[in-house]
Amino acid sequence: MTSHPTDTPQAPGSPAIKTRRFSVSLVWIVPIVAVLVGISLVVHSVLQQGPTITLNFKTGSGLTANKTEVKYRNVVIGQVTDVALSDDQKSVNATVQLAKQAEGFTRADSQFWVVRPRIGAGGVSGIDTLLSGDYIGADIGQSETRAKQFKGLENPPPITYGEPGKRFTLHTQTLGSLDIGSPVYYRKIEVGQVVAYELDAEGKGVNVEVFVHAPNDAYVTENTRFWNASGIDLSVGAKGFALKTESLSSMLVGGIAFRAPPYSPNDKPADEALTFELFDDQDSALAPPNGEGQYMALRFDQALRGLKVGAPVEFLGVEFGKVVSINLDFDAQKRSFPLNVGIVIYPQLLGQAHTKLLKVMNHDPNDEAAGVRLIGSFIENGLRAQARSGNLLTGQLYIALDFYPKAEKVKFDPSLRPVSIPTIPGNLEQLQEKLESIVNKINQLPIERIAGNLDSNLVELRKGLTQFNAKTLPSVQNTLADVSKTLQSASSTLAEDSPQREQLTQTLDELGRMSRSLRELSDYLGRHPESLIRGRPAPAAPLDLQGPARNSPLQQAP
To answer: Which of 270, 302, 380, 431 is 20 to 30 Å from the Cα of 448, by its Cα?
Structure first.
């Protein structure tokens, strides 16, 4: 019998294994795509993320994590991510995440400050934060070095980097009312502001840094003078009252003004960071150069109330110096207390007079001995110093140097240092002496005797007036009454309708006719004086007005 092949037993071996291809279910495609998109977004965010910096402020006012923004030119360049106290618990550190395009703000000289509503020297700022909230303002620096830690400013800087203009340094003794943001004026137009100030290296003055905006920075030249125009400049001195001010803002917050003097030809624009002196007022700033000063001593034997340090010294009405010291002294010989006044004069301020004097005298300004001899010659010619009243209202005095030819001669010592100029009493002192002499003369008069004589004369006068009223006055009244009656009678006589007046008129007419007859007689006798002897001739016969007959002998020929 034949068996089926399938019925035969098979030999043992390895089992057959079927392999399947890898396949992903459609359910997992969407999560995978989402993960990939998220990873790409994270990578893009990391790549676009800028640096992280830390800002240190005194307080955390206006700083909120994940809310407060950092802006530059009103464009958001970062955000505050964390606000925490510093390690010493004395300040606040704000962590700021900057944008990728804001990497330049990591320069070491970059500046950051909190923008909030402020009222300062430059006016009112940060009004927009009332609605949008406080934010951090930024200004990019110019340094090549990078930093992660920055000190936040408490006040916004007056200017930003890159603004056209020039910075200048002004040196002064005191800051006065100046502050950061105080305006700088040129011809009373605001052209800049104060940006910084600090004590100098020795601590004896103040360096004030100002910024003048372009194109007005070209008006700052090498000979430009700066002066303090802060507040109201009110001065009371020998010259009277003087009131000056630049503007209303300078009265409140102070200010600086500048101008080049008119005597500075060929002036050139000043370089940036040039140092200038800051004068106290405009007069001292624009005054011509003083030149080398000369110290001299004055000695007064009179009280000088009203004379102050800084009072002007004038020569023939021209100011060329000032008082620098006033000291009380004691004279043991005279047992008096004179005043020693020190003055500094600047002969160069006399202008052409000083120049021509040096030329005529052939004098070298550097020769001190020759200068002393020149002053000695002036003293011999009557040069004297006198304290005069410059203002009667304030009582301020000034020193006047003038020539007095009739002044008492004084021996001059050329070896004495400092050089001493003799003095004479002031005008008020001379007037006071004259008044005292007049009062002394009045006191010497016999006032009591004069008064007794006046009393006796008044008694006699009273008696005379009584007698006059009792006797003389009634007689005078009667006489005046008689005169009045006479005048009334005369008036009635001279009335227009009175017969006396008619007779008087006729009489005057007769007198007039008689005077005319006499005048005619005198005229006739003047023409015919012989009539006094011969008498008046007979009247001549009238001539025939028709002329001779036609056949008269007069018409016949001879």
So the answer is: 431
Across the chain, what does the average pLDDT equal?
79
| One-letter-per-residue 3-state SS of 503-540 | HHHHHHHHHHHHHHHHHHHHHHHHHCCCHHHHCCCCCC
Q: How far is CA 167 from CA 163, 214, 272, 490, in A?
A: 11, 11, 6, 109
Q: Higher-confidence residue: 359 or 296?
A: 296
How far lies 308's CA from each of 344, 399, 520, 534, in Å? 14, 10, 97, 112
The one-letter amino acid at 499: P
Minimum mean pLDDT among 101-105, 385-389, 549-553: which range? 549-553
Q: Is the pLDDT of residue 396 over 80?
A: yes
The DSSP string of 245-271 is -S-HHHHHH--EEEE--TT--S--BPP
Q: Give the integer Cα–Cα distance in Å for 430 and 387.
A: 12
> In Å, what is the CA distance from 429 to each residue of 62, 76, 388, 389, 402?
71, 78, 10, 11, 17
**In this prediction, what percent of the chain has a pLDDT beyond 90?**
17
Nearest to 55 by CA among 173, 147, 134, 128: 147
**Two tokens at 279?**
């004068």
Reported pTM: 0.53
**Residue 87, token pair as written in the block:** 């390690």
Give the whole-angstrom CA distance, residue 269 versus residue 165. Answer: 12
User: CA-to-CA distance for 507 and 514, rounded, in angstroms?
Assistant: 11
CA 358 to chain centre: 35
Amino acid at 7: D
Asked whether the CA dihedral 424, 428, 431, 432 is positive or negative, the reply is negative
Closest CA to 536 of 521, 517, 553: 521
Please, are residues 390 and 398 in contact by the beta-carbon 8 Å criterion? yes
| Tokens 């005529």 found at | 360
What is the distance between the terminal CA atoms of the chain, rounded to a whole angstrom?
Answer: 247
Q: Which two tokens stand for residue 296?
A: 């001299």
Q: What is the pLDDT of residues 533-544, one digit of tens each?
A: 776 666 655 544
d(CA 134, CA 105): 20
- Strands 397-403 and 383-389, by their bridges, are antiparallel
What span, in angstroms and rounded, lies between the C-alpha atoms of 501 and 508?
A: 10
Torsions phi, psi of 514, nearest 5?
A: -65, -40
The H helix count followed by the E strand count for the chain is 11, 25
**pLDDT exceeds cutoff 90 at 169:** yes
150: confidence class by pLDDT, cuts 50, 70, 90: very high
Domain map (residue ranges) of the chain: 30-151, 165-286, 294-437
Edge-to-edge strand list for the sheet holding 135-139:
111-115, 135-139, 69-72, 75-85, 92-99, 49-57, 149-151
Given this model, what pLDDT does residue 211 score? 93
Comparing 177 with 558, which gets the higher pLDDT?
177
pLDDT digits 0-9 by tens, 218-269: 999 988 999 988 756 555 555 555 666 555 555 555 789 999 887 666 788 8
